[in-house]
Amino acid sequence: MNSFDFSAELKTLLLNGPYKELAKGTYLLREGETERNVYLIGSGAVRAYLLSEAEEITIRFGYAGSVINSLASFINSQPSELSLQAIRKTSCHTIDKQTLEAFVNRSAAHQQGYTTLLEQTIVQQIERETDLLTTSPTERLARVLKRSPNLFQQVPLKYIASYLRMTPETLSRIRKS
């Protein structure tokens, strides 16, 4: 039986999409805009974050080889609560929603692959929520490093601290111990 690798086909589709080079600090999406794209990060790093009254809260990272966007905005065609910002010099390919939908609807295998990708994203979000709600800062760090061992090579400490919901000082102290 021939196995179908949706992620490889999606990556090929993305690699054929428009290419962007972003300077550090450049936005792919700002809060209030509607997400119309999916981004495949070629190099560099992007953070998805939201603003609370007191701080910026990092929700997700995208770095080389990963796909990122504001998923709720993309699916619902509603203004995004998140902003997507390059946190290093970054290159990426984009695909718009219409092109992705046409690709997904081309075959049952594409539809199943897309469903699997969405399911994996949901599981990752549930794991993150569980980490934030039930584990100590030390356990949170250990779990995120297990999922993303090269995180500290890709992302500045202050954004990792925000993602883990701790101060940079607390993160530094935990890493030293």
Structure report:
The chain has 177 residues and is α+β, with helices and mostly antiparallel strands. It has one domain (6-176): Jelly Rolls (Sandwich), CATH 2.60.120.10. It is 46% helix and 24% strand. The protein is built from 8 helices and 8 strands. The chain has a 4-stranded antiparallel β-sheet. A 4-stranded antiparallel β-sheet has the order 2-7-4-5. A hairpin with a 4-residue loop joins strand 4 and strand 5 (56-63). It starts with 5 loop residues before the first helix and ends with a helix. The mean pLDDT is 90.
Strand line-up of the largest beta sheet: 1-8-3-6
Number of domains: 1
What is the name of the CATH superfamily? Jelly Rolls
Structural class: alpha+beta
Query: In percent terms, what proportion of residues is strand?
Result: 15-25%
Q: How much helix, percentage-wise, in residues?
A: 40-55%
Terminal-residue CA separation: 50 Å
The total of helices stands at: 8
Strand elements, count:
8
Uncertain parts = none
Kindly identify the CATH topology: Jelly Rolls
Largest sheet: 4 strands, antiparallel
Q: What integer is the average pLDDT?
A: 90
The gyration radius over C-alpha positions equals 17 Å
Supply the CATH architecture. Answer: Sandwich
The global form is: globular
Q: Order of helices and strands, N to C?
A: HEEEEEEHEEHHHHHH
Q: In the CATH hierarchy, what is the class?
A: Mainly Beta
